[in-house]
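Dear support,

I submitted the protein below through the web form. The confirmation email said the job was done, but the results page showed an empty box. After a refresh the structure appeared. I'm attaching both so you can tell me whether what I see now is the final result or a partial one.
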Amino acid sequence: MAQFPNAEADIVALASAMIAGYTAHPADFPSMDPLTDLVALQAALSGYQTAKTAQTDALAAAQVATEAKNLALDGLEDKMRDELKKSEVDVGIDSEKLEYIGWGPKAPPTAAVTPGQPRNLDPVVQGPGTLFLDWKPPARGSGGTVRTYVIERREEPAAGGEFGSWAQVAIALETEATLMDQPRGPQLEYRIKAVNAGGTSIPSNTAAVVL
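What the results page shows now:
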């Protein structure tokens, strides 16, 4: 007996094959009513395809919006830094006056605190070789501010046995990433690390997938 697929792309492929087979050989499957059951199956597949297209469009729009926001934030930060530098010159030794604008004397340098552990890594297979990863940032108060996230992967050999070593495959500034051209066939494991000037966090939970 065949096993029902787990991967999203394989489920869609099976649905398409079922519809094609039921349509071409109705006499062999009398319990499949072409006017009700087959129409419902086709509608379910169409509903998935519509939702999939909407998800792809939403992800693209979110990426564009995130890039625009980050660009605007960079511009704001640059302008603020320029004005603060000029204000520090204006007040000279009277640095307490900087408190009027929400600023203050430069604090002595302190060692950066390593970020806490990223949480709840969740993989979603989006198609052949494509994987969407979503996770939560470290718990509040568990460590220093995250500067970037490192995405690592390892894979099980084709013959089975011990997994290979962890290797960096991508970085992310937000708590999500879409990975393209990932290996298809072997079991893969992914994990996330948070990084800042203080060091690298404990890895997140490990998420296993087969593409």
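Response: this is the final, complete result; the empty box was a page-load delay. The chain is about 35% helix and 25% strand.
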